[in-house]
Amino acid sequence: MKATIKVDAERIIGRVDPLIFGHFIEHLGRCVYGGVLDERGEYRQELIEAMRRIRPSILRWPGGCFADGYHWRDGVGPRDRRPIRVNLAWHNADESNRFGTDEFVAYCRRIGAEPYICANVGSGTPEEAAAWVEYCNGTGDTAYAKMRRDNGSERPFGVRYWGIGNEIDETEHVNEIGCLSAEDYARAVREYAKLMRRVSPDIRLVAVGSNRGEVDWNLTVLEKAGAWIDYIAQHGYYGTDDHYSTVAGPMYVEKRIRMLHAAVELAGFTTGLERQIPVAFDEWNIWYRSRSDTEQRFEEVYELKDALFVAGTFNSLQRMCGIVKMANLAQMVNALGMIHVDADGMVLSPLYHAFDLYANHTGSTVFDTFTLSDTFDTHDRGGPRGLGPLTGVPYLDASATMREEGSRALCLAVVNRHQDEPIECQIRLDGFSVGDSAPVFELTGSGPGARNTPQEPEAVSVKARPPIRPGATFVHTFAPRSATVLEIPIAGQGGRAP
Question: Is residue 408 in a domain?
């Protein structure tokens, strides 16, 4: 099978926001208790070290559905005096509140991520949210700033990113608390934003977008509350047992995000709002196995095909760099986790290695990349947020970015979705002064269902392949069922962002 990729140094489309390499933890299953915290209730050091290696930019907490039943005051102060509550969202275990705001912010500092807190709209109030902002960011002698200092944190936390509720449009969602109509939610957004910003004017606010893709919901929220927000959120869970349906998932991601962006543009036209509201894709992942298996406690066992979905999603997010300014994989550990930990040790799933490939081997300046390859069709919906079946899905997907830090390189990220066949690809680079040796990093495994286990922890992982000799035009063969980054050294000014 053959394909073509073309990249033109003059066709720069934008810059990747580092916040797309975000993550998410929720009080769900063994994500926090037994994941972030070990069996003794202490931070799990090997997990911290693993996260640092993939440079997480932002971490969302406490939910998720849990957020709209969470009252933050339960989770501050002496840990042995915090009340035990029923987990109203997931009702799978009591909530000890031993991991609260102070512990979350401290954890973010340890892994090097910005904290992103989702406020309670479903069962909370604007006053409660504003008090939480004051606790985190207050500098004066007000009650909640003093409470933070009394709890051991003299300096304010400086939490910039705040969500106003979670999936509150999901009227039939059995786990979501306090669902609202679009009109009522827009009214709530205005009130929350007003009070939260009176406490801390520089915070960045994320509003809920319709996770069912309801155009009317999105338009109403954007028209009536767009002036008050900095992001509009979208969530998406995909995947099936079928290889091709799963690896085609990024096409659903891209289509749904572009539909939301169209609503942003239409609302901006009707209201006269001149600034563009970007999308926060702040929950996304493969999730289909544990939805119907309560014994798995939400713990998906991820495979190579799922990692190729993640790689393809990063290609899509890079292409949409002007639209998507934040993204958070759901979730970080155990519950839908890209990492699995327990008392016996840690396993980095194929998803983790896809993050490693893109966080550590791609750049920030994005080029309009042309690809041409054979295509395939899918035959099912593609998961809970899928829009399938699809026709004409390219076997080859590519994104080109320039890395400016250190040695300058054009990072060509390519996914071969074919589960059996290599693809011989002619690559043409116009307007670049190309060096003579390019490192190659490849993510693949023995088959679409390859998994990492304690016995085979690197059955799917990123491996350095022999360097290649690139040129203005050259040929490279991409292995079947693989994600590959070619780090092509670039000299001179070609492809430099203005």
Answer: yes
Report pLDDT digits (tens) over 27-36.
999 999 999 9
Tell me how far apart the alpha carbons of residues 93 and 287 are, in angstroms, rounded to a whole number.
21
Look at residue 437 and tell me if it is in a domain. yes
Does 371 share its domain with 335? no
What are the residues facing 206 on neighbouring strands? 163, 231
Q: Distance between CA atoms of 249 and 251, rounded to whole angstroms?
A: 5
**Omega before 331 cis (within 30°)?**
yes
The bridge status of strand 423-430 relative to strand 409-416 is unpaired
Q: Which residues pair with 474 in a beta bridge?
A: 427
CA distance 390 to 244: 10
How far is Cα 453 from Cα 446, in angstroms, rounded to an integer? 14
Domain that holds residue 461: 2-11+366-491
The secondary element (H helix, E strand) that includes residue 341 is: strand 339-342
Instruction: Retrieve residue 401's tokens.
Output: 């970015």
pLDDT > 80? residue 493: no
DSSP per residue, 16-83:
--GGGSEEE--SSTTSTBTTTB-TTSSB-HHHHHHHHHT---EEEES-SGGGGG--GGGGSS-GGGSP
Q: How far is CA 208 from CA 131, 235, 342, in A?
A: 21, 9, 33
For β-strands 396-403 and 409-416, DSSP reports them as: antiparallel
Query: Tell me: the pLDDT tens digits for 268-280?
Result: 999 999 899 999 9
pLDDT at residue 498 greater than cutoff 60? no
- Does a structural domain hold residue 496? no
What backbone phi and psi angles, to 5 degrees, belong to 452? -95, 135
